[in-house]
Amino acid sequence: MSSAGIAAVLSLIIPGVGQIYNGYFLRGIFWLIITPGFWIGSGGMLGWICHLIAAYTAYQKAEEKLAQDAVDG
């Protein structure tokens, strides 16, 4: 069982790790590749946006997973 808060913090520290923690490996790899590209390509300006989006999506997917687990019983 995954925790939405832990997923968000993991992805905020290293974008993509929260998605991997949730079991979404391809999403995690996507964020692990895209975020450094935005950091380097934009001189750091868009890197923060990627970090926040990665953390938010990790949190959101963990919440969805917990809700689905509750419905499934």
Describe the structure.
With 73 residues, the chain is an all-alpha fold. The chain has one domain (4-67). The protein contains four helices and no strands. It has helices at residues 4-13, 17-22, 25-41, 47-72. The protein is elongated and about 45 Å long. Keywords: Membrane, Transmembrane, Transmembrane helix. The chain crosses the membrane at residues 28-56. This is DUF5683 domain-containing protein.
Topology (elements, then pairings):
Elements: H1 4-13, H2 17-22, H3 25-41, H4 47-72
Transmembrane segments: 28-56
Keywords: Membrane, Transmembrane, Transmembrane helix
Protein name: DUF5683 domain-containing protein
Rg from Cα:
13 Å
- Tell me the distance between the termini: 13 Å
Order of helices and strands: HHHH
Which blocks of ≥5 consecutive residues have pLDDT under 50?
A: none
Strand content: under 5%
Any idea what the shape is? elongated
Question: Any descriptors?
Answer:
single chain, 73 residues, mainly alpha, 4 helices, 81% helix, elongated, transmembrane helix, DUF5683 domain-containing protein, membrane, transmembrane
